[in-house]
Amino acid sequence: MPPNVAKKGSAGRTKPTQAKTEARTLKRKREQDDLSKLKKAIDELDPKSPDLKNFTDLPLCEATASGLRSSHFEVLTDVQRSAIPLALKGKDILGAAKTGSGKTLAFLVPVLEALYRAQWTEYDGLGALIISPTRELAVQIFEVLRKIGRKHSFSAGLVIGGKNLREEAERLGRMNILVCTPGRMLQHLDQTAGFDVDNLQILVLDEADRIMDMGFQSAVDALVEHLPKTRQTLLFSATQSKRVSDLARLSLKDPEYVSVHEEATSATPSNLQQHYIVTPLVEKLDTLWGFLRTNLKSKIIVFLSSGKQVRFVFESFKRMQPGIPLLHLHGRQKQVARMEITSRFTSAKYACLFATDVVARGVDFPAVDWVIQADCPEDADTYIHRVGRTARYESKGRAVLFLDPHEEEPFLKRLEQKKVPIQKVNVKEGKKKSITNELQSMCFKSPDLKYLGQKAFISYTRSVFLQKDKEVFKFKNLDLDAYAASLGLPGTPQVKFHKGEDVKRLKNASRAVFSSGSEGESDDEGRKPKKPEVRTKYDKMTERQNQDVLSSHYRKLLGDEDDEDEEDFMSVKRVLGDDDLDNAAGVSTEPKVVTLGKSELIIDSKRREKLLSSKKKLSKYMDKGTKLVFDDDGNAHPIYELQNEDDFKKEGPAEQIRREFVEAEASKVRDADVEDKEHAKQRRKEKRDKQKAREREELAQQMGAGVPQLEAGDGATAEDALALLRSLPIAGEGDRSSSDEEAEPPKKKAKKWFQDDSEEEERKSKKQKKSGKKVIEMDHEPDNLEDLEALAAGLLED
Fold first, then answer.
1. Which of 142-151, 190-199, 666-675, 784-793 has the lowest mean pLDDT?
2. Which phi and psi (to 5°) does residue 627 adopt?
3. Least enclosed by CB within 10 Å: which of 85, 335, 486, 666?
């Protein structure tokens, strides 16, 4: 090949490569130009400008703007208008806004923009960490992040409890954005090797006041220790407070406090109608049942104070069938069940969800009509978060609070301090219905439901006893006997209380474990917890509380009601027997020895003595012996007897013995084969003879029970022939022989309702022709010899 041709071909191959390189260079240059313009626009942005009304007015990259348009987010809410510009400038934010005001986008948009401006890639590690107090809220944040971030190339992950820890650890290293719960994230930071968070750019805490409660405080403290100091921090909640200790612990630097409802007349949305009903504790379930029966075409959330109450109310109402789909959700459910129930309630048009505070914060259920608080919330902030599940994003909603008479005045003062408007309403007398009898009947028939009712009673009374606000929650004012009867229980369970414990710390600590899936958390002094020890079933039984709820009458019968001496706990007492008395008297007691054949059995316990009365059990210890066979002379031999080696050699060579044995056995087989063939041949012959005899009998029956032929030499006289011919069948009368009279006549088919006599006659004639019988028609009955000869000639024609 000439040199110039080779050069030409080489140049032809390099042209596409050079074009691609130039295109990538131009694209990179355009991206850098857009990035520089974006940074310049952010520097020139005025966070307090009144012109910021839509997302298009903000300096956002094209990927984020496109994702917002695709998700139909256009107009900025108040909290978004105040927080996003400050966050784009890199400020730390401490934000407070009403429920349903759009706080999720207020921190997700700055997260995407911060990583975009930093040109973050999967090789840079974790860039943004978003912490949520509950799994349901974390899942919701992650879904919104997927919608608005669909045009970005960042990788995002969801880290919550209830999933495989190892599978999560394998993917953590490749994630740029993580949405997590505090306990689960702390578990990965402590246990997952190679998980690096040194490059973290931005930290977000949604529902910050809830995260920084006593139940999450130690987890957040330990988690922040792993994070770098140089980062941007965003905190959002519906009820935020300026606490210096919180700001110092989270390392906020000159934070901007964003509050869009401080000057508002209400801490709740203006389109939310709030009411309360004064109902005694014993009538609470009656009122709730009547409300559900009246609002069947609604979407309702009913908040209760504990998961045990949620289970009992759900199971009892489900059996009573109010006419509306029922669901229940609490922190002790498995993660898969919680996700399924959340999805079902989100997509349902009409449904009622019984839930604890696990869904009280941040979770967005669309088109919720009513929020019912059957149990009084622990404080006003919890009330605000609960009612925030309805009237979201300028839609309308209604909320009802059930209050005991002694809870009314003090709790209304708490709401008034939080600028919460609420009005009192009364239940119509016609809508009231007592369901106590139905509950008692169900608890009587179902022990499981009664057990749930007992647990619900204990959990409610214990929570009231441990509440800190004693002005609202007065345990002494509760009528426990009437409350137990209203739950359908036959008696009032006994409850043991432990004074001096903080109910909020206990409640939140329990929820932190079950919501985040954390194995352990640091204590208040920052020390790492010990690895939890494996507890057996018996350890759990001894530690279980309230296990003697229904056993007080048993203790009274035993007379140890007031005996609580710890020395007698699990003590073993033994009744002295005869052997013990003999030993005490100095009498020696030696075990018995029983002879069983050639073996001996030592009777050294009562269990062995029982063997003597049972032949079946005693046979196990007896000598079974050996099985014997008898020869022709009557001598006994073992069934398998080994021949002496010398005697075996005297019989001849082994090969010759084997050959003779084989020939003898083969001869036996051949003789047996001949006998078998003869026996089979004989059986076949007997079978054929029986078949022929059966055929002859059938033929004789068909031919008139074997009528003899009139032939010469029979010696039949005229009178015999006359008697014989008279027995022959006559037309229309069938066979009337004596043999037929003795035999049982055949069964006739039932005549159809539309069949006439002519058809019956025709059917009979066809049946006779088919059977082979010959019928001769005569004008009159034969009464002389000529008539009989004519009849016989007709029969003998064939």
1. 784-793
2. -85, 135
3. 666
Q: What are phi and psi of 599, to 5 degrees?
A: -105, 160
Indicate if the pLDDT at residue 417 is higher than 80: yes
Which one of 241-250, 599-608, 749-758 scores highest in mean pLDDT?
599-608
CB neighbourhood size of 257 (10 A)? 13
- State what percent of residues in the chain have pLDDT above 90: 38
Query: Which stretches does DSSP call E strand in 132-224?
Result: 156-159, 177-180, 202-206
524 exposure class (CB count in 10 Å sphere: 0-12, 13-18, 19+): exposed
Taken in order 304, 306, 311, 313, is the CA torsion positive or negative?
negative
Closest C-alpha among 268, 235, 208 to residue 418: 268
- The burial of 742, by beta-carbon neighbours within 10 Å (0-12 exposed, 13-18 middle, 19 or more buried), is given as exposed
pLDDT at 649: 82
pLDDT bracket for residue 535 (50, 70, 90): low
Q: Is the C-alpha dihedral spanning 551, 553, 556, 558 positive or negative? A: negative
pLDDT value, residue 563? 43
Instruction: Give the residue among 77, 76, 38, 78 at the shortest CA–CA distance from 59.
Output: 38
Structure tokens that stand for 499 in this block: 């004074």
For 637, phi and psi rounded to 5 degrees? -140, 150
Choose the weakest-confidence range: 22-31, 507-516, 647-656: 507-516
DSSP 3-state percent helix, strand, coil across the chain (nearest 5)? 50, 10, 40
Q: What is the pLDDT of residue 221?
A: 79
Q: What is the model's pLDDT at position 728?
A: 55
- What length does the chain have? 798
- For residue 234, the surrounding DSSP H or E stretch is strand 232-237
Residue 670 C-alpha from the chain's centroid:
69
pTM over 0.70: no
Rounded distance, CA 226 to CA 15, Å? 51
Q: What is the average pLDDT across 721-740?
A: 50
b/e burial code for range 214-234 (CB count within 10 A of at least 16 → b): ebbbbbbbbbbeebeeebbbb
The mean pLDDT of 630-645, rounded to a whole number, is 76
- Torsion 358-364-367-369 (CA) sign: positive
pLDDT at 788 (0 to 100):
77
β-strand partners of 355: 303, 329
Tell me the two tokens of residue 570. Answer: 């699990």
The string over 65-100, giving b where at least 16 C-beta atoms fall within 10 Å of a residue's C-beta and e elsewhere, is bebbeeeebeebbbbbbbbbbbbbeebbbbbbbbbb
Beta-ladder partners of 594? 601
Burial of 433 (0-12, 13-18, 19+ CB in 10 A): exposed
DSSP strand pairing (628-630 vs 636-638)? antiparallel
Please tell me whether residue 276 adopts helix, strand or coil conformation. Answer: strand
pLDDT of amino acid 750: 46
